[in-house]
């Protein structure tokens, strides 16, 4: 299956959407942390007895666990509905760090345009095997050529890891 090669302009057009997605992810992550702290307190108070349905705090414990499950589901939904269908990639730790990669072509090979939540626009790119530490600042010439000069169907996409 041929991959979409994003141009810098196409990737930048998605930055506002990505900001909203990461805002949603951040909201659910904060709820998960807060509920996790409440579960820790209940575990400290009751240890394994908290799982006993006769325990006076069991219902709160179960409600917190259920809410965490729901919030994790909401994060997964955001990723599944707003990121993956667009052909955007989360590198390892991307959800935690707000980092995404856009596959693109450059000088006859696949590379990634790299954006991190908080950056004003796409400013970096990296080879498919270097990740975040290998980020290079986009030059004006690269901005004009990435995703435009190569035919993605003619480039081996086995280096892409999604």
Notes on the protein architecture:
This protein is an alpha+beta fold and 162 residues long. The chain has a domain of 71 residues. It is 46% helix and 14% strand. A 4-stranded antiparallel β-sheet has the order 1-2-3-4. The radius of gyration is 21 Å and the shape is elongated. The mean pLDDT is 92.
Describe the secondary structure blueprint for this structure.
Blueprint: H1 8-46, H2 58-83, H3 94-97, E1 99-106, E2 109-116, E3 124-127, E4 136-137, H4 140-145
Antiparallel strand pairs: 1-2, 2-3, 3-4
Helix content: 40-55%
Q: How big a fraction of the residues is strand?
A: 5-15%
Radius of gyration: 21 Å
* Biggest beta sheet attributes: 4 strands, antiparallel
> Please, what is the oligomeric state?
single chain
Biggest sheet: strands side by side, in what order?
A: 1-2-3-4
Mean residue pLDDT: 92
Number of strands: 4
Distance between the termini: 12 Å
Instruction: Provide the low-confidence segments as ranges.
Output: none
Q: Helix tally?
A: 4
Structural class: alpha+beta
What's the helix-strand series? HHHEEEEH
The coarse overall form would be elongated
